[in-house]
Amino acid sequence: MTEKLIKNNLVLELHVPSFAPVREFYGKFGFCELDYDPTSGGGSDMGYLTISRTDKFGMTMLNFYGDKDKVAKHGHFGDFPPDTPRGYAVEITVPVFAIDELWQKIKDDKEVKISQDLVTKRWGKRDFRVVDPFGFYVRFTELVDWGQK
Question: Is the pLDDT reported for residue 129 higher than 90?
Answer without folding.
Answer: yes
